[in-house]
Amino acid sequence: MYQIISHFQSIASNTFHKLYQLKEQIEQQYLALTSEHEDLMKQTQRIQVIQENIKLFQKKKITSMNFNKTELTEKTLLEETTEHNTLYAHSGCHHNFHLNCHLPETLELGAEIFKGYEVW
What we know:
By secondary structure, the protein is mainly alpha-helical. The protein folds into two domains: 12-65; 73-120, no CATH class. The protein has helices spanning 2-5, 14-65, and strands spanning 86-87, 96-98. Strands 1-2 form a two-stranded antiparallel sheet. The radius of gyration is 46 Å and the shape is rod-shaped. 0% of the residues are buried. Keywords: Coiled coil. Residues 23-60 form a coiled coil.
């Protein structure tokens, strides 16, 4: 082994100390850069999640813009009478069949008092 290293140039012992210090600096910088890289990757992931949420909310907004919450309905205007009226209980029908009706008053659908009456 001596024969192999005997032709190498001699160096001062403090050179090894300088090399060790440089190695330590490089490792510290490497650890700092690795940590910074991990932080940047986490921030990138958070940004991607936020971007996806923004896209979803924009899609919901566009869908909601086409949704009309206003529903128009007709309201039955009852005529004032001195007696009760007979209303046809069919959905969409708002007609007073008998103003001042003389049939007994009831709220029961298909009550016996209506048997024999034909719908207009």
